[in-house]
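Minutes, project check-in
Item: structure for the 450-residue chain
Input as provided by the requester:
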Amino acid sequence: MSTIAAIGTALVGLSALVVVVVLLRAMPRATFALWAAVMFFVPVWVGAGLGNLFLSAITVVTLVAIVALGGDLRLSVVDLLMAVLVLLAVAQAVLGVVEISYSVTTVLEWALPYVWGRLVLSRVPASFIIDCLALCAVVAAGLAVVEFITRTNLFTLIPFDNSLYETWGPLQERNGILRAEGAWGHSIALGAALAMSSSFILASRWRPLVRVLALILVAGATTLTLSRIGLLTLVLVVALTLVLLPGIGRTVRIVIASAGILSGLVIAPFIGRVLAGAGQEAAGSAGYRGTLFSLFKYVRLFGSAPSFKGATVGGDYLGSFAKSIDNTILLTGLRLGWFALAVFCLIIALIIIPALSPARAGTASIAVTATAPSLFAVALITQFGMFFWFLAGLAVAQQVMRDAGSNAGPGRQSRGVHPVHFGEDEAAVPVPSPAPRRDPLLPGGSSYDV
């Protein structure tokens, strides 16, 4: 291709991108719906290469969404810590003490979705975000059930000639039973994503019966992933939501709690039989995660850990962990050092602490809080990591807006921040309030009940 042709192609592509951004800016709800659909239903191996850099579809859509809906942002301490974490990753890569791929992951898979989560509430109503994520989770759960029954994953029928497809494309089994994974590339990723989304189902504006049935479907699909992490996260999310999220009807709480107990009586024996049948594979999986903690001694203050190939602990060869470390906390330390790990943990802690108060808890912060323990047993694989960091950003946005509303004082609540209450056994309905003046090009308000 000649230079002139290349320049012409680039200009056409840039012009098309500008048109897309303008259209998406005029349709913030459609923008978020598009992003959510890509997150739940487009595998990470679908994307395009940019030189030596591969950009997954969800990364591209997230970047475009930020450009389209970006606006003013009230900074918080967590935002500053996130900036420090990114700066540490990039600076250490420049100094050559951290691999470039680690800094790219921090920027594209952690910081980018976090920023999107921080921005989206300024343009899209919280109620729409809740309903949209709940709907995507229900559809994904339905597809997971179909996958389990038919033993066919429709998303793996989208082959791409890249390493991501080779890694995440093959289907998993446990004790000869297919583990549902949907478009998430791994059963643990799907299970965790469905579990985190359960809080949004409970907080949606759907009728109580629909919410209960949707939650049962999601719980069933999570069970079909045969992931202990997914099931544990689901239990924690539902329990914290029922206890901390204000306004859920008493009848709904009783029905969900009762259904949870009955489901546990059915699910526990099923999972127990599967794990017992898996025998050495399941036991080895648990033992592997326990042995991983011995690698903490290799973490440096700054920079990546040295190679531990050839090293042994108690007779166990640690080199087998070189390519697979199912522990986000440990992996962050090994890749970026103790200082970066401390910043990482502080970010998560500052999201969790407010979430433990019913006065400040929201769906996003509850999801992050319930998922935090699993970070010691799973890496931020496929789009699960991006979804986690998006919810982290959304949780911070909720807390910032809530604080802004509180600081405004009685009768002077911050613009765009209106309380949302749940009627007894009714779906979430915003309390009527005078509509604030809005730029006609910026439709949609926001509430802090996310």
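Outcome recorded: Confidence is low (pLDDT under 50) at residues 408-449.
No further action items on this chain.
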